[in-house]
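Attaching the record inline, Q. Sequence:
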Amino acid sequence: MSDIPVIDLSKAPGERAAWDRPAWKVYLWAICELLFVTNAWQISSGLRIRVLRMFGAEIGQGVVFRPRTRVKFPWKLHIGDRSWIGEGVWFHNQDHIYIGRDVVISQETFLTTGSHAMRRDMALVTRPIAISDGAWVTSRCMVVGGAEVGRSAVVRPMTVVRGAVPPNAVWGPDGYLGDRFS
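Structure, as predicted:
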């Protein structure tokens, strides 16, 4: 087994590859995220949204943004009008996440736009996520970079979403389960 190579992680690129902002702004965001966004004691959706917008998030009118959420880089987050973001949702957005209007992202869902190249250098690879108008990503799903959820689609609990979910589809761990509105 000693002839199988191991990647020397001390030589892997650092996480700053996706920052695209000065370090002071990333660190200031980390403090504000902890105080105003992730903080379970901070109950005001409006305050949470104002702080996200101060750091560049594009958030529409009438959005509900529950406590215990995490946003890696608010300047890469785009949410349309009247969408609901559930408690404990984590936007690990090293690339852009686009959420349409009237979308529900239910509690404990993890959206991640970054991964690593499966080669010796472990380089960061990012791809955006797009969730169309009227979609519902139910609780504890994982949505990975490059995923697209179609208009008015429903993603069932604990589904890993990669690739495209068709419009109006009910999508589960094994793929297509039928139409939402038939």
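DSSP finds two helices and 20 strands in the chain. The mean pLDDT is 93.

More tomorrow.
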